[in-house]
Structures are given as structure tokens and as C-alpha cells.
Amino acid sequence: MSWGDIGAGALRAALALALWGLGAAAYAAWKRDARALASARLVAIGAFVLVLIADLAMVGALTAHDFSLVYVAENNALETPTFYSAISLWAALAGSILLWTLILAGAVVWVALRGTRSLPRLATVALAVLFAMLAFFLALVVTAAADPFTRLAADQIPADGNGPNALLQNHPFMALHPPLLYLGYVLTSVPFAYAIAALILGETTDRWLTETRKAALASWALLGVGIVAGAWWSYAVLGWGGYWAWDPVENAAIMPWLTATAYLHSVMVEEKRRLLRTWNIALVIATFALTILGTFLTRSGVVNSVHSFTQSAIGPLLLGYFVAILVVGVGLLLYRMDDLADRGSVGAPLSREAIFLFQNVLFVAATLTVLLGTIYPLIAEALSGAQLSIGAPYFDRVEVPIGLALLFLMGIGPQLPWHGASRATLERQFTAPAIAAAAGAAVAVVSGMAGWAPVLTYALAAFVTATVVQEFVRGVRARHTLHGEPAPTAFVALFRRNGRRYGGYVVHLGIVIAVVAIATSQARTTELEQTLAPGDAMDVAGYHITFAGLRDIAEPQRATTAADLVITGNGASLHLHPGLVQYPNTESAIGSPGIAAGSRDDLYTILAAYDGTGHAWATIRVRVIPLVSWLWAGGAVVGFGALLAALPPPKRRPVAVAVRVADAVGAE
Amino acid sequence: MSAANRIGGRRVLIIAALAIAVVIGYVATQTLQSAAVYYLTPTEAARRGIAPGQAARLGGQVLAGTLIYDPASRALRFTIGDGVSTVKVIGSGAPPGLLREGAGAVVEGTFAADGTFRATQVIAKHDEVYTAPTGSAVPTHQTPAP
């Protein structure tokens, strides 16, 4: 039996199990039948194991260079190193869908085993919804649309394969960012399934929402970290010295992240004040639908971009799936609208719930404007036949002000009490942050930032940081007073007693770090391009860069020509080797930048062109990009904060009292 | 805290939220108009008679034998065509690694009075079809010595 036989057989069996699971779960929910539920649980495990076998079979076929499979022949070559062979599982469409299916099957198991124990009926309906989704994806991978195990006829099997897309085998980050994004995408289906289940059953409580809090948080955090990892990949691999280009595939990832961020905040309004219930379900549906829309846009080839390297018959199927999700989701929501009506309203504009409302308006506006910019070229082409593109200026001009407004609200919201604030509260909460904001603006002006946006960013970043520090200081002081804990113990205890709140502050700090890194790197990058003969040097922003010569490096899977650059100045003493890499499956070489990352700035060097006949000259482009490393650090802090926020709340009673006191002291 | 010393009211809230949405919607649609960059082929550019100085984005094929990059002055010259019309393009700086003769390119910039196109940005449109390995692994982007 070949890898292809094993994989194809496992997927077909998994599809049968998923359909069985769908029927069993639906029957179990309808008749409250325990035996049907037990069988659905078993089936969930069986389907997961089968999909896992199929994924491993694909990895096996790739690492064994089994070119009888179309996917392997197209995305692998004999010279591809084992590591890149293995991660080529997600190098193209069919394999990506296979990974996606595996994660979804994992989510099904989680709901089947854990979910149905805490909320039997609701989770059983959610389980049926998830089985339906799993069946859809399994149907994709067993039909021609995205079958990863399609074979070549015996006489067509090549001696060597085409190899992975050059851009995808040039850096180990490729192992990281797609799985993170897929995990984030797929986990949005758990809150969605529960929301649909709640609508089907006419649930008027918000149990579904507390039950899926961790899945929502996890999907949001994974999406966010995956987006930053993708930006880092783009920075380290594509050799243009940037990290974000408002490319459709980037927009596809950020849109569900924006609505998920809105949801994580508005959900607190529902928990505390039982408001915004319809809105929250709408956000859950929108987040999930946007993950599918993004997949459709980037995978169907409908939007042309550097990332849309896969085009296949999957487009119409994904579009149909997207429409089905919208019809079912919105239809059920409208049907249950009256049951979900709020029994109160958000009142005072200076209350925490009002800030959440504004924040939600801004996040949804950001999502819709990104969506508009992404699909406007399609609309224009459909209406007038004109070919056009919407460039970064549109996104920068619309999204930067929205982002700054959100940064402002990030400082205001957590400092305001629920229901409304008095003047005394405002003074107590915002005196120190306001001073910090002024100091932040001063720092920006003194350090030579030009333009209103970076200066305002610095001011708001200082403002938010001050509010967070103030919260921690007050929390630590309160614990010190109440429990006599020394400051470090009290600090750790804050997270252990109220991880959600203080983890949230850590997330906010991570965002501040990322935003400062973005503003500084965008506003203060220095670039210089020069053609140098060996021995020549150029000076950029304090760095002295000597071009020592060119050399050719031959590896089995690629040929590289690299410049040897000797870097001194700014305390540096190192060598960088920007190069151009030729893979046999691409006609032109791709850049491989030489980067010296630092906490103050990154020195980013690119070999733009060189003398191919005598190595007599090279054109070197140098970018000195301040603080850009802090963007990746900020992403890590956001992920860490989300982990803290996911810590289980304490169960012991005296602790619960202490938290409430600390809350009271901290917030009002 | 009593209701009396809270600031503002519900109406203020709704009006403010709506105002934000309207302003963002207005700015977005206005910006969309100005940020839309139309792709033109050399033939379309000739037909529409783009005035000198007007921003445009031209797409076409880099014609064989026209790509010249002078590393000393960093002047970049090539001609793009669409099978009917051709346009001479003058740029500055090393060509992007993926730019090569026979392949697609998009240039952003303005037409000069003499009919040449002064590119501020040159983007190679590499097609996504990867050819079978040929055994040769020689970079094809190399440009002749000055």
C-alpha cells in the first residue's frame, strides 16, 4: 500500500464517520438519546484519528518524495530538505485544506468529549453543526476540488518533482505562521457552532458564551500571533524591508481578528450587564464567516496577489459554503431576534460599556473598510470592466486614524466604571495618564518624529501604558494592605486571582509595544542604495558598510550569490550576507536579505543587482529600520497576555472575596 | 454614585456612535476614489491620451533586448509593450530581482512630455506558473557590466 492509498482511504472513511456523527449528534439532541451521543463521541475520535492518519500519510509521501501524487510532484523535489518537505503539507491549497480539516476534527473531539459533559444539549447541537462543517471539508478533500492524494498516471510520474514555491522554502518561519493562522481560523468555528446551537434551541441564557470563552480567546490569540508571525516572515523572506502591504491575504487574516477583538470586549458587556446579546452573536457569526470569506478570496484566485498562488475548482464551493453560513447564521439570528432583545440599555457615554460600544463601532468600521478596499477591485471590474487596485494609501489613510482612536479608547475603557463615571473618578483615573501622554508627545517631538500620526501614537502609547501601570500599582497596593503580601507576591497573585483582567492589561501592553514599533519603523526608516565595487563602502545612519566582494554558494536544492558586507559603526562589528537565491523551479532569483536585528534598530541589507560576469560590482540597498524587532516582541507579549487571561479562575472561597475587594479598590 | 453626577446621556451616546460611523464611511469612500489606481496597457494609455504629469500605472511585457541597468548612475531603462503599442520607461535604482525581459511588469509614475514614462516604482509581475526544472541554476536577473 502506498502513502496515497492510506491517505485517500482514511479520508473517505473519515467522511463516512463525519456524516454518521452528524446524524448521531442531531438525533441525540432531538431525542435526548444518550446512546446516540455516545456513538457521536466515538465517531468524533475515529474521524480525528483517520484525518490524522491522512495528514501523516501526506507528510510521509512528501518526505519520501513519492511523485506518483500530483501534490508531491508539484510541491516537492528530491533535493528538498526533509524539514521543508514535511512542512510542505501547507505549501499549497490541497495540503492546507488537509491541515485545516485536521484542526477542525480536533475541535470536534474537544466539543464531543468536554463540551457535551458541561452543557449536554447545547453542546450536542453544536457538535452536529461542527460535524456538518467537518463533512464539508472532508468532501472537499475527497473530490477533485482539493484532493491532496490525486495520482498521476504511471507513465506521467516524473523522476523529480517541481519543488515547493521558492518563497516557501527559503525560511524556517514557514513552519510557524500558516499553522498558527489555521488554528486561529478553525477555532472560530467553535464559538460559531455554539452560537448557532443556542439560536436553534432558543437559548436565552448566555451559557454558550461563557462555555466558549476560551475557544474564542484562543482563536483570537492564535490569529493575532499568526498575523505577527506572518509579518515577520514577510519581513525576513520577501526582501523589501517591510512587513505589511495590505495584501488581500493579509487583509483576509486581519478582518476576522478585528471582529474577534470586538467580540472579546463586547462579550464583557453581556456578562456584566446582559446587554448587546444579538450583537455578540452577530460578531461571532461575522468572525467565522470572514475566515471563510478570506479563504475564498485568497484561495480561489479571485484576487490576484503574490499569495494567491493556488487557483482551483475550490472557489465556487467555498463561496457556496460562505453564503450558506451567512444565510443560516443571519436567518436564525433574525428568527430569534425578539427573544434576544436587551432588557436595558447602555446609558452614560462615560461608562465602561459605552466605551466598549464605541470600540465595537470602530472595530466593525475597520473591518468593513478593509473589506471594502479588498473587494473594491472585484466590484469595479464586475461593474465597469476596469482593472484597478486599491493601494496602501487607502488603507493607511482610513485605518491609521481608526487605530489611533482605538488606542485612545484602550486607555479610557478599563479606567471607567460600569454604569457611569463621576468627575472625581475621572480626575483620579486620568491625571497621571494625561501627564504621561504629554511626556510621550514630547519624546516623539524631541526625537524628531515628523507628522501628526507618530506624535499622537507616542502620546497615546504613553497614556495607555500609564493607565496599565496605575492599575498594577493599585492592585499590588491593595493586596499588600489587605493580605500583607510583599509586592512581588502580590503582583503574581493578581494574575492568579484575576488572570482575565490582568492578562488583558498585558495584552494591551503588547499592543502598545507593537504600535510604537510600527509608528517608529514607518516614520523613521532610512534607506540608501548604492552600487559598490569590492572595497567600496557606504554610510547609512551611523553604520559603515564595506562591500568585501561576492561569492557563489551551491547547495543541492538552490544556488546562491551573496555579497559579503562588513558592518561597523553604532557599536556593531559583524558580517551580513544578503543574497539572491536561484531555485531550479523559478526562472528568476529571489532575494534573501541580510538582517542584523537589534533592540534599537535593524540593519536590513538587500543585494539588488550584481555583475554576473566578473563580480566587479554589486548594487546594495540598505534600510535602517528603528524598533522593528519590538513588533515581534509585542506580538509575543499579546500571546503571553492571552495565556494569562485564559488561566482558570480560583475556586477557593476566601480568594474570591479577595478578588472582589481588589477589584473594588482597583477600579472604583 | 448617583445618577445625577454621571456625565452625558443615552442620546449623546447614540448620536456619537452614528456620527463616527458616518464620518468613517464618508472618508473611506472618498479615499477609495482617490486611491484607486487604474491599470492601463500602453494601448489604453495611448487611446485615452494621458496628459504629461498625470499619475498612471502601466502594465505590460518587458520587451526583449530593451532592459538596461547602469549600476554607476543607477539609471534603469526598458520598454514595455502589449503587442500593439510600446512605451519607453525610465526609472532609477536597481531593477527588482524578478524583473526580466519577456516577463510582465507594472510601472507606476507619470508620462513625460516626450512620451516616455518616468517610473517612480517598478514592480515585476512574476507569473505564478512554475516551470519544470531544467537543470540550470544560473540566476537570470544578472545585468551586463557597465
Q: Explain this structure to me?
A:
The complex is a heterodimer of chains A (668) and B (146). Chain A has helices at residues 3-31, 34-63, 70-75, 82-87, 93-118, 120-142, 177-187, 189-201, 207-211, 213-237, 248-273, 277-299, 314-335, 352-384, 392-412, 423-446, 452-483, 487-497, 499-523, 629-645, 653-667, and strands at residues 388-390, 526-532, 537-540, 543-555, 558-569, 572-576, 579-582, 590-592, 594-596, 601-610, 618-626. With 668 residues, chain A is an alpha+beta fold. Chain A is built from 21 helices and eleven strands. Chain B is 23% helix and 32% strand. Chain B has helices spanning 10-35, 42-48, and strands at residues 36-40, 55-62, 68-70, 75-81, 86-92, 104-111, 117-125. Chain B is elongated and about 70 Å long.
Characterize this entry briefly.
The complex is a heterodimer of chains A (668) and B (146). With 668 residues, chain A is of the alpha+beta class. Chain A has 21 helices and eleven strands.
CATH architecture level-2 label of the largest domain in chain B: Beta Barrel
Structural class per helix/strand content of chain A? alpha+beta
Q: End-to-end span of chain B in angstroms?
A: 80 Å
Largest beta sheet of chain B, briefly? 5 strands, mixed, barrel
Low-confidence stretches of chain B: 1-7, 127-146
Q: For the largest beta sheet of chain B, what order do the strands appear in spatially?
A: 2-4-5-7-6
Largest interface: A-B, 74 and 59 residues
What is Rg of chain B? Answer: 24 Å
Hey, roughly how much beta strand do the residues of chain A contain? 5-15%
**What's the mean pLDDT score of chain A?**
90
List the helices and strands and how they pair.
The complex is a heterodimer of chains A (668) and B (146).
Chain A (H helix, E strand, L loop, with lengths): L2 H29 L2 H30 L6 H6 L6 H6 L5 H26 L1 H23 L34 H11 L1 H13 L5 H5 L1 H25 L10 H26 L3 H23 L14 H22 L16 H33 L3 E3 L1 H21 L10 H24 L5 H32 L3 H11 L1 H25 L2 E7 L4 E4 L2 E13 L2 E12 L2 E5 L2 E4 L7 E3 L1 E3 L4 E10 L7 E9 L2 H17 L7 H15 L1
Chain B lengths: L9 H26 E5 L1 H7 L6 E8 L5 E3 L4 E7 L4 E7 L11 E8 L5 E9 L21
Parallel strand pairs in B: 1-2, 5-7
Antiparallel strand pairs in B: 2-4, 2-6, 3-4, 4-5, 6-7
